[in-house]
Amino acid sequence: MEQRLSLVTLGVADLARSRRFYERMGWAASGTSVDGVVCFFQAGGMALALYGRAAQAADAGIEPAEGGGFEGIALAQNVRDKEAVDAILGEAASAGGRILRPGGPAEWGGYVGYFADPDGHLWEIAWNPHFAILADGSLKLPR
Amino acid sequence: MEQRLSLVTLGVADLARSRRFYERMGWAASGTSVDGVVCFFQAGGMALALYGRAAQAADAGIEPAEGGGFEGIALAQNVRDKEAVDAILGEAASAGGRILRPGGPAEWGGYVGYFADPDGHLWEIAWNPHFAILADGSLKLPR
Question: pLDDT by residue for chain B (143 residues), tens digit each?
Fold first, then answer.
């Protein structure tokens, strides 16, 4: 297996609502999206997809259990300064997201906050002075 | 908000077990990993992280509810041919993963299978003739 991700697919209750949320956050859907079925966003060298939660469970061959609560997965976007953390959390609140942790100092020396999208999927927005962000937005771990 | 992901963090019950699983799948942990705390894997222009599930919930400021069952998120790796789907599912089974859907044709014209990692996190392995894979492994959505 190669050491890379191609897609992260979020199961959602209402595809149109979720697409609107990400569009309000400034994301532009790919033309390969299919209304009412699936929505794709190019995200650097990978893609974020929105897909019906029940259809996703069926696709994976598992039961779409109740869910809710903590999913045990968080997406993150690292940003270039502390101010961007607060700005993005503000955008998320305006777009219909829920602020779980307001921006503030992290014990590891950065500045971090969390929001949940309309389905409760977690996003961490972080300024991390230890991890480089390249010109194209890529994250580069230290050696 | 920029249209990109920096990290995907998987909450895990046993960090050493999860790290072993991904290492057996051929992934190499970054030197910035901290034993017993967090493990990072560079993955193209982003990183995959393993972190204790309870610590992750605390970090996000939410309750670490029971969990289990369907998380509503799937990671995916797209590969260059059908044979790679079966090969990776075989590796995952050998490494201690659980095959949820054996490799087989997908209704959208590709070939796909799913496995769950030791914590039940979903991985879809897909050959998708509609999405390009660049030389560096990046995924490129069609226009």
Answer: 999 999 999 999 999 999 999 999 999 999 999 999 999 999 999 999 999 999 999 998 888 776 667 888 999 999 999 999 999 999 999 999 999 999 999 999 999 999 999 989 999 999 999 999 999 999 999 87
ipTM: 0.91
Where are the domain boundaries for CATH 3.10.180.10 in chain A? 1-67, 71-143
Architecture in CATH of B72-143: Roll (3.10)
Q: Which residues of A touch B43 (CB under 8 A)?
A: 3-5
| Domain at A71-143: CATH architecture | Roll (3.10)
Q: Does A88 touch chain B (CB under 8 A)?
A: yes
| Among B residues 90-129, those touching chain A with beta carbons less than 8 Å apart | 91-92, 100-101, 112, 114, 119, 121-122, 124-126
CATH architecture under which domain A1-67 falls: Roll (3.10)
Q: Enumerate residues 11 to 40 of chain B having a beta carbon within 8 A of any beta carbon in chain A.
A: 11-12, 25-28, 30-32, 40
Alpha helices, H only, A10-141:
15-24, 53-60, 82-95
| Residues 50-79, chain B, touching A (beta carbon < 8 A) | 53, 56-57, 59-79
Q: What is the DSSP letter of A78?
A: E
DSSP code per residue over B63-118: ------S--SEEEEEE-SSHHHHHHHHHHHHHHT-EEEEEEEE-TTSSEEEEEE-T
Closest CA to A68 of A119, A17, A18: A119
Nearest CB partner across the interface for A8, out of B8, B25, B130: B8
Cβ–Cβ gap A5/B134 under 8 Å: no
